[in-house]
Write a structure and sequence with these properties.
The structure is a homodimer.
Chain A lengths: L8 H26 L5 E5 L6 E4 L4 E4 L3 E5 L3 H22 L6 H8 L2 E5 L6 E5 L4 H15 L15 E3 L2 E5 L2 E4 L7 E3 L8 E5 L3 E5 L2 H9 L2 H4 L2 E5 L6 H14 L3 E4 L4 H11 L9 H4 L5 E4 L2 H5 L12 H7 L1 E2 L2 H12 L6 H13 L1 E2 L2 H6 L2 H15 L5
Parallel strand pairs in A: 12-13, 12-14, 14-15
Antiparallel strand pairs in A: 1-4, 2-3, 5-6, 7-10, 7-13, 8-9, 8-11, 16-17
């Protein structure tokens, strides 16, 4: 057995890039010290009030408000030190060809500092951080400060997203044909910016919220028949899946359709793909896909709509068997969605009002229950064909 | 756009097999009726009292107790009908080349039966089933009754397991080289019995509980340096991951090592791979890997052990920074484990007593926090080298 020393060529380059940016960005601290100024970092605020929805770009973005983090301010000294500690851990991991996760960055930095209290000279103790939420927050500050996403610093994470389709990619040192995955699928890497698209033979991207439905569509050859790139986020999408979808949209100019459960949580999952998430708005610029379309399941797919002159896809009996009564938290969530600027279109109002009036929801699985052929050969292609989606 | 009509050759054969068995097994019902007997099904009980640990085979198995489900017994008529309903839905799905999930089987069967109450002739209503737990339970009865796992009936499910390594497999109509996955991984199909192993160049299987740690080891080329098949269950293992691991052990004769967090939940995850799960003991015979070895993280890896003449892998300072205080539920879980026959070895007693005495736990990520090279190039190969595992 020999030592682990493998790094793909792609990773070697990525490390060099990240090391260079980190060095440049944090050089300001050294410069402050060398030139006799109290060192400080100026970082964009990640607060809700500095999170702005830009209707033209259809994105949730950080505004221009900044805060200063100064070593010589008692209230900020700890945060300042935490930030430099985290930056140095990342720098070291990059130099040593490591691949830390956000969890082990927390462990790498966690220790107790002993100090002498003045004037008593008693010994005090202070932990660098106690909870991962603290180290995660510092890491986000570094992402904002350097404008480098953690994935570009080769910080890994668990990864749920999968893809199949007539698409060849280069990842690491390999070329992978995503149409040759058998009954399995390709599990997207945590650093999708390092993927190259080699050859594409597809007309659109279909993102399915639920892994089990993805499995069914894949197995029935949906992506083959309809020339689709088929993706699942397996629930709330992680960053890598979002970035992968964005790149398919931006670089390959493929239209992106999202299918989720018909309930406020499903609608929100779509909006995370399209607009970004509220807590991580600084990533939207890279991770969101503003052109993503909500294909369904819509409330108006279930009940039809006079306003839209639309017939329902379900019979009354199917509705009786398939729909689930909404819970109080679903209702609350729908009311919250109605207040988000990116849900304030006329089209979304119809869906949300229908939900609030009927107070029922529907899972994608119910459509597969009506028949996989119905889902794969009627519902999805019909809706794409007649343009029944929400922009 | 054309109709979805794809099925791999493997699936076509699997369908035929499952249709045949279902037909044969349920023919007894028809025969009873034709020959004038009240129709009934005789099925092994899936109760705790009929779940037996066999120490020789190291497996949790169903015992020999059976129950009869008879149409003409009022207490059983509903369950009898549910069982036939589920069997007919599965039969129909197989005939129509569908790929249902357990969730959509629930939807497919869910409806309301109206009947006339005698002697009043009022109309009564009865749902086939209300909750998925009911339809799932009926499906399990069918698995036990037919001795065919749901995967063999092409019932799909969401799937978390991933694999990389120097191993070629055939899945569906494709041959897939699991050493050419780039930075991504191969996501195991929900029906791993349909996989063929084509070419193997590996000395052992390493199963890592946590996806993020799998990503790190993969990225650092662990499987390449140490000739391993690297697998993650991404938490509690699902059936497909367990079956895949079992097949690697049984058919390729590869030793299987499992790494999990050092706490009772991690220990239990290992035991699910090795022995089976209590609630699904009827599957153990096919899904469990009795030869699987627990490599770590052990309590005695953290603290060392005089009894075992073993030095700790962590320094006192690392312990201070890495270990987490156990919660009340961890303690309770450890006491439960001590009562399970398959944890009643001397070696497990040492680990569980150490846990109950120290009342602390440790995540795998803490070892990666000490350094990925430590985890990949020292901890794992050292322990395998000197045989420091629990059988």
């Amino acid at each position: 057995m020999s030592a682990t020393s493998y790094s793909s060529k792609v990773d070697v380059k990525a490390r060099e890039r990240a090391l260079k940016v980190l060095h440049e960005k944090f050089y300001v601290v050294l410069k402050d010290i060398l030139e006799g100024r109290p060192p400080k970092l100026v970082i964009k605020k990640r607060t809700l009030s500095n999170t702005i929805y830009e209707p033209e770009r259809k994105l949730l973005l950080l505004g221009e408000s900044v805060f200063e983090r100064s070593l010589l301010d008692l209230r900020e000294a700890k945060k300042f030190m935490q930030t430099l500690l985290m930056a140095s851990i990342i720098y070291e991991a990059l130099s040593n060809s490591e691949y830390p996760t956000i969890r082990d960055l927390y462990y790498r930095g966690k220790h107790t500092i002993r100090y002498r209290k003045l004037p008593s000279k008693n010994v005090g103790e202070e932990n660098t951080w106690d909870e991962q939420s603290e180290s995660d927050s510092v890491l986000r500050d570094i992402e904002v400060f350097t404008n480098v996403l953690r994935e570009e610093m080769l910080i890994l994470s668990k990864e749920k997203g999968k893809v199949v389709g007539d698409l060849k990619i280069r990842s690491g040192d390999d070329i992978i044909d995503l149409s040759k995955m058998g009954h399995g699928a390709y599990s997207i890497e945590p650093t999708p910016d390092l993927i190259d698209f080699i050859e594409v033979n597809a007309e659109f991207v279909l993102v399915v919220e639920k892994d089990a439905v993805f499995q069914q569509l894949h197995r029935a050859g949906f992506w083959r028949s309809y020339r689709a790139v088929l993706i699942t986020s397996a629930g709330q999408p992680d960053r890598a899946t979002r970035r992968f979808v964005r790149r398919l949209s931006e670089e390959l100019k493929l239209p992106v359709y999202v299918i989720s459960d018909s309930d406020p949580y499903g609608f929100y999952i779509y909006s995370v793909f399209k607009t970004g998430s509220i807590t991580l708005s600084y990533e939207s610029e890279r991770l969101a896909t503003p052109s993503a379309r909500f294909l369904g399941v819509m409330m108006t797919d279930i009940f039809g709509s006079n306003k839209l002159n639309k017939k329902p896809y379900l019979t009354e009996e199917e509705r009786r068997n398939f729909i689930i009564r909404a819970k109080e938290r679903d209702i609350k969530r729908a009311r919250e969605l109605k207040e988000y600027p990116w849900f304030k279109s006329e089209r979304w109002r119809i869906e949300l009002d229908e939900f609030l009036e009927r107070r029922v929801k529907l899972e994608i699985e119910a459509l597969a229950g009506k028949g996989l052929k119905f889902l794969a050969d009627k519902y999805i292609p019909d809706k794409i064909g007649i343009g029944d989606w929400i922009e």
